Amino acid sequence: MVRKPNHLLGQTSPYLIQHLYNPVDWRPWGPEALNEARERDLPIFLSIGYAACHWCHVMERESFENDQVAEYMNRHFIPVKVDREERPDLDDIYMNAVQVMTRQGGWPLNVFLMPDQRPFFGGTYFPPASGYGRPGFLELLQRVHETWDNRRDQVEEAAGGLTEQLRAISSGINAGDLDAQALDQVAAAAAARIAGSFDAENGGFSHAPKFPPDTQLAFLLRQYRRTGQDILWEMADRTLTRMALGGMYDQIGGGFARYSVDERWLVPHFEKMLYNQALLAPVYCDAWHVDNRPLFRRTVCDTLDFVRRELTHGEGGAFSSLDADSEGVEGKYYVWTPEQVLDVLGNEDGMLFNETYGITAKGNFEGDSIPNLLAGEPDEAIRTTLTGLRSRLLAARATRIRPGTDDKVLTAWNGLMITGFVAGYQAFGRREDLDSAASCADFILGNLLRDGRLLASWREGIAAHPAYLDDYAFLARSLLDLHEAGGGDFYLEAAGELGQVLVDRFEDKERGGWYFIADDHENLLVRNRSGLDGALPSGAGVATETLVLLAARLNLDRFRETSVRALESYAGELHRVPNGCSSLLAALDYLELGVPERRVCRDGVCWVDRER
Q1: Residue 279: which of 418, 458, 475 has the closest Cα?
Q2: Domain boundary pick from 397, 414, 433
């Protein structure tokens, strides 16, 4: 049966397009859906995910493709689909709501809302059938509908209480003075807390699942340069080494998966996000500056080559992600059997590769093997041979059915990626990395900057969504990096203009600091602000750091004054959760120690040594 498209027809998000022919009559977020909910007096079922999300695909197959579920949803709810990468403002609000309700978060994020946007119930993945004390999704829908119809007062009470908590989260700050000792005190506290959770055997700072701790690693390396404390280097070195040797790193094609499901960094959750590559490349460059290990250099160069090869638009912008699944199976594109390797490489080379990279008949992932080097780095004598073998396997792998590509171009993530390319160029002098950084910057400035204001997302010639704090902060910071790598004064001027928009549109004029959305953004339930790092660096921290740098480069005292106000407004968070404020600490570092002008050269490349 050929299904008709639902109300997502005309959307450009690959995630929304994935749901275009669901029997669920999805709407995009906007006035039409909100007005319909009010007119029909129905709750909104808001489902937030992203194109590379494995469990989003699972729930779609199990529930959103189910005709019975769809019929019930369409009759009793207004179903709304949102791409969390296009709308991080909505994702931030309703992720906070689900975390308040359940103490957990993740995607798919499924939330029931009043027509006025207030949430009253939600969760993440819901199974299709009841079991283990949990309701199946259809049963859950029925319970919510029954409560909506017969106990509306309970729904109102839940929505009201939850909204008050969200508003408290968004406005709760504890400002204070940051004296000359603040950096040493807060940085020492952050290092101590990070050390307290360090996994000495495997690296990292948590139990499974393990996400790449990029902002914390950047802080440890910066703090090591300042203090010379060996424990800081040891934690960073161990973590970076184990990540680069594990299966979370694509040993054949380069690049990192989003996280590891185990403590050893062996088994990835296979989607590959642009921001992971962008954030990890500079950290590995920083580590290489401390210890010129070939592993660090190879990890950076192969990762940047992967982005250039598989996640770059022909005109220069970088795509968002590769899916976890191919042919409906998670990880199928990336795993091998010993026989498959032998077929490509022949017996002698194949046996060498299998032994080196842990490819066995037993396997390490559902009967197949994820290539890894956790048993130990190969000897220097065979590294050149292994490089050629990896290239042959990469060519063979390219003949498989590829995972889907989310080919939208996000301003914020491209800003991070520009910085990643510049870091690679500054470390290793590869001209192609500087060229990629410039092409990426030119693409964003040419396609997503309109009348001095940024848009957040671009796909197939269409730019959309007013930009967020992260977009302005990450892009302005990366343009500074590009300028200092020799990219020309144009990028410094562009960074200065974006910095002024940050001050004009995003600053909290009353208390200092930054809102996530601009003062002329659409009216949402709350206007969030936070200084804490998450999967991405804190936009507040990067915005503050950027203004400190711009103040020095452009001799603008007003930018420096704005930065001081911002840091004072986040003093409470800096003292309460110092290990979650690595980006703010980078800004505080520059503010208290100054922005250095000394030029440093390595491999024929010169740049401002911002870390000292």
Answers
A1: 418
A2: 397
Per the document, the length of the chain is 612
Dist. CA 314–CA 443, nearest whole Å: 10
Residue 601's H or E segment, with its range, is: strand 599-602
* pLDDT attached to residue 380: 86
Instruction: Classify residue 199 by burial, with Cβ atoms within 10 Å: 0-12, 13-18, 19+.
Output: middle
The structure tokens 């842990």 sit at 358
In this prediction, the residues of the chain whose per-residue pLDDT falls under 70 are 1, 172-181, 597-612
Judgement on whether residues 25 and 108 belong to the same structural domain of the protein: yes
Q: Looking at residue 562, what is its pLDDT? A: 97
Task: Give the other-Cβ count within 10 Å of 195's Cβ.
Answer: 17
Question: CA–CA separation, 612 vs 604, rounded Å?
Answer: 19
Of 397, 419, 437, the one marking the end of a domain is: 397
CATH label of the domain that carries residue 421: 1.50.10.10
Q: Which residue bears the tokens 């000292």?
A: 612
Residue 441's alpha-carbon distances to 305, 318, 438, 492, 592, in angstroms, are 17, 10, 5, 12, 30
pLDDT for position 608: 44
In which domain, by residue range, is 375 found?
A: 338-397
**Token representation of residue 382:** 């065979």
* 156 lies in the same domain as 214: no
pTM for the model stands at 0.94
Q: So what's the pLDDT on residue 598?
A: 40
What's the token pair of residue 229? 């404390």
Q: Identify the pLDDT of residue 73.
A: 98
Domain assignment of residue 313, yes or no:
yes
Tokens of 581: 């404020």
Q: Compute the chain's Rg from CA coordinates.
A: 24
DSSP-based three-state secondary structure for 106: coil
Please check whether residues 554 and 471 belong to one and the same domain.
yes
| 600 contacts 609 by C-beta, under 8 angstroms | yes
Residue 8 inside a domain? The answer is no
